[in-house]
Specification:
Layout (H helix, E strand, L loop, with lengths): L1 H25 L1 E3 L4 H5 L12 E3 L6 E5 L6 E2 L13 E3 L4 E4 L13 E3 L4 E2 L15 E3 L6 E3 L12 E3 L4 E3 L15 E3 L6 E3 L12 E3 L4 E4 L13 E3 L4 E2 L15 E3 L6 E2 L13 E3 L4 E4 L13 E3 L4 E2 L3
Parallel strand pairs: 3-5, 4-6, 5-7, 6-8, 7-9, 9-11, 10-12, 11-13, 13-15, 14-16, 15-17, 16-18, 17-19, 19-21, 20-22, 21-23, 22-24
Antiparallel strand pairs: 1-4, 2-3
């Protein structure tokens, strides 16, 4: 009797998954290669449908991967019924409209990849409930509004990628207090402003920090010098001013440094010459003065250097 009950529950749950997937399919308005049209049908188990991965123990949907298939349409709210879903990947397609709030119900979700679509509206505040999330990439869309600050409390996150949208507001001052595992933070090409939070220095696992092409003001916080694993730092084309902090010289893992097209003034700190791994260094189009420190000339790994459009005394 217990075995029969378990089978009935499993069957009902599987039916819920199938219903959610068929609802998702019903909102697909463009399928040029007829991938879903021909393959997603009730005549076969949904675990055998293209792009679907099921768990071995319970025949429940664990992965939905339609990347690079050229499909388009809206994301139906029924996707929130796939309660065992761990991976949602629909990148490089033509999905449009809003991201449904119901995705916040998927508590086992570890990966969201929606980059390279034409999604609009705001980032759902319900994302704050995705406590298992490791990767969140919704770059290269048309998203607007502020970034929900509680997203930065998801302690499992390894990657946050929001670049090339139209996001507004500022970054929370405590942005890194709950992100011990974060390795990649990419928010370039938006309309964010305010100061760069000093708490970024608490993201000790950070390897890539990209805030370029925004409206950040003020200075680079000295706390960035604590990011001993940082390899790439992009701050190009903001409204940053004051001096480049000496603490930049502590970033010994740094390979790529782009501070171009800002309003930095004063001398180039000689400590930049201590970055022995640096390959790309761009400080062009600022208001830097004084002499170029001799230490920069000793950077043996350097393959690209641009110090143009400044006010150096060197001839």
């Amino acid at each position: 009797m217990v075995y029969l009950f378990i089978n009935i529950v499993t069957s009902l749950n599987s039916s819920t998954d199938e219903y959610a997937l068929l609802a998702f399919k019903s909102q697909i308005t463009s399928d040029p290669n007829k991938i879903l049209e021909k393959n997603w049908s009730q005549g076969t188990s949904f675990c055998n449908w293209i792009g679907i991965t099921c768990g071995r123990r319970h025949q429940r949907v664990r992965g939905l991967n339609l990347a690079d298939m050229g499909v388009g349409g809206t994301i139906t709210k029924e996707i929130g019924e796939l309660s065992f879903l761990r991976s949602l990947i629909i990148s490089n397609n033509n999905f449009h409209g809003f991201i449904p709030n119901e995705i916040g119900k998927l508590r086992q979700l570890q990966e969201i990849e929606m980059q390279y679509n034409v999604l609009t509206g705001s980032i759902p505040p319900t994302f704050e409930f995705l406590e298992s999330l490791l990767k969140l990439n919704i770059s290269h869309n048309g998203l607007t509004g502020n970034i929900p600050s509680r997203i930065f409390n998801l302690t499992s996150l390894i990657e946050i990628s929001f670049w090339n949208n139209s996001l507004l507001g500022s970054l929370p001052m405590d942005i890194c207090f709950n992100l011990p595992k974060l390795e990649r933070l990419r928010i370039s090409m938006n309309q964010l402003g305010g100061n760069i939070p000093p708490s970024l220095g608490a993201c000790m696992s950070l390897k890539l920090l990209s805030l370029s092409y925004n409206n950040f003001v003020g200075s680079i916080p000295t706390e960035i010098g604590k990011l001993s694993k940082l390899q790439k730092l992009y701050l190009r084309r903001n409204n940053l001013t004051e001096k480049i902090p000496n603490e930049i010289g502590n970033l010994l893992a740094l390979i790529y440094l782009d501070l171009g097209d800002n309003g930095f003034n004063g001398n180039i700190p000689k400590e930049i010459g201590y970055l022995s791994a640096i390959e790309y260094l761009d400080l062009e189009s600022n208001s830097l003065t004084g002499h170029i420190p001799n230490e920069i000339r000793n950077l043996s790994a350097l393959v690209y250097l641009d110090l143009g459009d400044n006010g150096f005394n060197d001839k």
